[in-house]
Amino acid sequence: MHEHHPDTPESSLFLEVFRSKSELHKILWITALWVFFSVGQAIYDRVLLLSEGVDVSMTDFWTGMFINILATTFAGLIGGAILVAYLQRWVRNHPYGKAIGFILIAFTLIICFVTIVAFLTRVTLVENDPLEKDVFYQLGAHIRSLAFVKDYFLWLFIVLGTIAGILISDKYGPGNLGTFFMGKYFRPKREEHIFMFLDLRSSTYIAQILGEELYFHFIKDVIRDATPVILKYKGNIYQYVGDEITVSWWMSQGLNRLNCIRCPLEIRKIFNHRSSYYMATYGVVPDFKAGLHCGPVMVGEIGVVKRDIAFSGEVVGTAARIQKRCNHLEVNLLISDDLKNLLNWSGSKLRPEHKGDLLIKGKMDNLELYTVVKD
C-alpha cells in the first residue's frame, strides 16, 4: 500500500503562494477584529470608571488606548498566525477535548506574554523613573487582580469565537457566512448564475485499484489542489459529492476575464504539474471532465437539523447533463451555447469549437455544445 504524504516538495508554487495570500488575508482580518474589540473594551472601561466617579485624564486614556491597540495588534498578528497556519488544522485532526485543552494552554501563554509587554510599555511611558519602582511586584499584583481575570476570560471568549468563525466560514465557503447571519436566503430568490460540474475521470477504476482508504486520501488531495484554483477564479464551491465538485459563479464574476473557463483549464494544469507526486503516491494522475451552463435559478436555505444554501432549476440539471456528454464527445470541457454567447473571447487566445448538441426535453431546438481550444 502507498504511504500518504499530505505535503510534498512537489507542491506547485501557485498553490503555496495562494495559500500564503489567503492565510495572510485571514490573519489581517483577525488582527483588525481584535483591535476593534480592544478599542471597544477601552472605551467601555473609561465609561464605567466615569460612572463610578473615578476621574481619568484624557492623557492617561489615550496613552492606555495606544498601548491597547499596540498590544492587540501584536497579539493579533501572533495569535492570528497560530490560529490560521496551525491551530485550525490541528483542531480538525484531533479530538475536541484535546484541542480545547491545547487552545487554553496556547492562549494563556500568549495573553500572559502580551500582558507583560503591555504592562512594561505602560510603566515605561507613564512613570518618570520606572526603574525605581518594583516593576515585577506591580506586574504580579496586576496578574492577580480581578481586572486581569476579566480580561482573560473576555479574550478567551473572543479567541474561541474567532476559531468557530474560521471553521464555520471554511465549512460554508468564503462569502457565505454573512448570508446565514443576515438571513438573505430565508425566502427563495431568483438569481442568475453559472454552474460547473467537475467530475473525476475513471473514478470507479481508480477506487478499485487504490482501495477505500487510499482512494479517500486521493480525493482529499484532489480537492485540496483544485480548491485554491476555484477560489482564485472567483468560483463558489456549491457542494462536494463523492469525486464531483459543483461550482457556481455570479454571472458578472464568472464572465469577467473568462474566469469560469480559465478555472477548469488551470485545474488540469495544476494536476499535470503535480503528476510526479500523484504517480509516486497513488500510481495515477487525476483528470477531470467539466460541463458549464448558465441561467436563472432559485436560491434559498433548506433543511431543519442541518441547514444549507441550495440551488434549484433547469440550469443545474442541464449543467450536470452537459458534463456527462464529455465522454461521448471525447472532450474534457463542454460549455453551452448560452454561456458561449455571453463570454468575451477577444484577446484571450481561447476560442469555442462546436462539438455536438444536447437534447432538451420539452424544447424544439437542441442545445449546442462547445469545447474550448487555444488559438
Known CATH architecture of the largest domain: 2-Layer Sandwich
Q: CATH superfamily assignment of the largest domain?
A: Nucleotide cyclase, GGDEF domain
Helicity range: 55-70%
At CATH level 3, the topology of the largest domain is Alpha-Beta Plaits
What is the CATH class designation of the largest domain?
Alpha Beta
Radius of gyration: 27 Å
> Which spans of ≥5 residues are poorly predicted at pLDDT below 50?
1-12
Q: What is the SS-derived class?
A: alpha+beta
Report the end-to-end length measured between terminal Cα atoms. 43 Å
Topology as H/E string?
HHHHHHEHHEEHHHEEHEHEE
Shape: elongated
Describe the structure in your own words.
With 375 residues, the chain is of the alpha+beta class. It is 60% helix and 18% strand. It has helices spanning 13-51, 58-92, 96-126, 135-143, 146-172, 177-182, 203-210, 212-232, 251-255, 259-273, 275-282, 314-329, 337-342; strands at 189-200, 236-241, 244-250, 288-302, 308-312, 333-336, 350-358, 367-374. Strands 1, 2, 3, 4, 5, 6, 7 and 8 form an eight-stranded mixed β-sheet that branches. Strand 4 (288-302) and strand 5 (308-312) form a beta hairpin. Helix 1 (13-51) crosses helix 2 (58-92) and helix 3 crosses helix 5. The longest helix is centred in the first third of the chain and has 39 residues, at 13-51. Mean pLDDT is 80; it is low at 1-12.
Q: How would you briefly describe this protein structure?
A:
It is built from 13 helices and eight strands.
